[in-house]
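Reviewer 2 asked us to include a model.

Predict the structure of this chain.
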Amino acid sequence: MNGGEIAVGVLLGFVPVLLFLVALIVLDSYKLVRLRWVLASIVAGGWVAVVCFVVAQALIPALGLEPQNYSRWLAPPIEEFAKAALVVYLIRSHRVGFLVDAAIYGFAIGAGFAVLESAYYWIALDRFGPGVWLVRGFGTALVHGGATALFAIAAKARADRRRSQGIRTLAPALVPPVALHWAFNQFVLTPVMSTVVVLVALPPLMYGVFRRGERTLEDWLELGFDTDSEMLSLIESGRLSDAPAGEYLGQLRDRFEPEVVVDMLCFLRLHLELSLRAKGILMMREAGVPVEPDPTVRASLDELAFLERSIGATGKLAMAPLIHTNPRRMWELQVLQGARE
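Predicted model (structure tokens):
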């Protein structure tokens, strides 16, 4: 293979999917994702490709299948399930807050899978013509990234709508990406036509998701900032007892020791302060203002963890109506974790 063929292979086979990922990151005006986690997702997607390759090498002879039949029927569900497992981990570990970062992380995982898969074909086969690399780079690779992004978007939407991150909630989101991957691998259309369909459909789909996701984020910032600010103002002014939250805390005095109730109030106040700080960071990012690491965040997070241990599991459960420790609240803490580094 001469230098020109190598250059063509790299440009067509590897670059498109990575450029598409860069475009998604640039579109993220709130900078919800951290570059380190995007790179980690790409690497993790590559490892998933290795695992799927090992599985394929074991199943093809065991089931007596032709490699082409394996690619058509078994590869789509196996590969999409494996990639989806990484997305589920990110969602359940509160790394994903909105549809925008779900799409970026999902596409990054799929991109890592596609890049390593293309690298394998590069090494294993003597040569590919430009047409094959064109199909792999603009078709197969984007399908891998797009399918995993589609799962991430659907899974996050279901988790938000049902207020649950359980497997039973997230699993149905696997149906659309498997169907997409399966349809692409049936070769109903010519490879070139399939690639054209992917190129026409994927960009507007991702753009639409980003616009909807950013509108949701803007609404959440506006409503959440006002609500948290109002409650924090009541606490600082000593007028919390006049509000429903104060009445609820008053009821807790009969169920917990006085020192525990004091810790509960401190826990509520600190949680509100950190939530407002996280929202402020997002607003600054959207405005293009650099956010410098804050050395005080670590102390605040450590204090929050101490207060959480002090009030115990029962106390935290009792505080749930006031703090709403839902996945998005936990995601805010992840934002602050990033801001302190």
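The first helix runs from residue 3 to 13. Residues 238-339 form one domain. We have added this to the supplementary material.
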